[in-house]
Design goal:
63 residues; mainly beta; SH3 type barrels; four-stranded antiparallel beta barrel; 4 strands
C-alpha cells in the first residue's frame, strides 16, 4: 500500500514511521496511528502522523 497517499492511512492502523531526527539514518519506529497531521491528499516523503505514544513522523510502511 502506498504510504504517500493520505487515503491509505487510517486511525488505529499499525504503521512504520521515520522521525525527523532519524531521517538521515532511516531508523523506523512502529506504532498505531492516533492522528493524521498532513492535510494534503498525498506527500512525496510520506504522510505525517502522530502515534498513540506521542511520536510524530512520516509514514514509510503500512502494516
Amino acid at each position: 500500500m502506498d504510504a504517500a497517499k493520505r487515503s491509505n492511512i487510517k486511525i488505529g492502523a499499525t504503521v512504520m514511521v521515520v522521525q525527523k531526527q532519524d531521517q538521515k539514518s532511516g531508523k523506523l519506529t512502529e506504532g498505531i496511528v492516533k492522528k493524521i497531521l498532513t492535510n494534503s491528499p498525498e506527500h512525496h516523503r510520506g504522510i505525517k502522523v502522530m502515534l498513540e505514544t506521542g511520536v510524530v513522523g512520516r509514514v514509510q510502511q503500512i502494516k
